[in-house]
Specification:
The protein is mainly alpha-helical and 92 residues long. The protein has five helices and no strands.
């Protein structure tokens, strides 16, 4: 399946001024996934979504909605690496 970005809800669209943040976020998600020896398919199964979405999240091509991020964080036991996201967003 190829994701047709034109038909996605706005919450998945990465604003031009936030592209760097979503690439950063995707890098952290991928790092945590790899550190735990999980596949993209396993993460997709946790979130009840297609693997193509997880792949696009990791590349920063789609904005991960908050409900997917918090579900992932909960299922992974709130990885400490995710704390860096708060710092990146709020600077503290």
């Amino acid at each position: 399946m190829t994701i047709d970005i034109k038909n996605l809800p706005l919450e998945f669209i990465v604003p031009d001024n936030a592209r760097d943040f979503y690439v950063y976020l995707g890098d952290i998600i991928k790092s945590v996934r790899c550190d735990r020896n999980l596949s993209i398919a396993q993460i997709a199964e946790m979130l009840h979504i297609d693997a193509e979405f997880v792949d696009a999240y990791e590349r920063g091509e789609l904005a991960i909605p908050a409900y997917h991020f918090f579900e992932l964080a909960a299922r992974l036991g709130y990885p400490p690496e995710f704390d860096h996201i708060h710092t990146k967003l709020f600077g503290n």
